[in-house]
Design a protein that fits this description.
By secondary structure, the chain is mostly helical. It has 2 helices and no strands. The longest helix has 19 residues. The protein starts with a helix and ends in a 7-residue tail after the last helix.
Amino acid sequence: MNLTLVGAIVLLGLWIILVFGAHMGSGPVQLLYAAAVVLFARRIIAGAPKFVS
C-alpha cells in the first residue's frame, strides 16, 4: 500500500464517521468524500508505484 491509498481510506473513514456518527450531512464534510474519491481515482489511473532496484 502506498500513501495515496492509505490517505483515501483514512479520508473515507473520517467521512463515514462524521456523516453517519455525528450526523453532519452537508457542507465541508463532503469535501472529505470528494478528496477520497480523487485519491482512489488517482490510485486506479496511475497504479501502484513501481520500485526498480
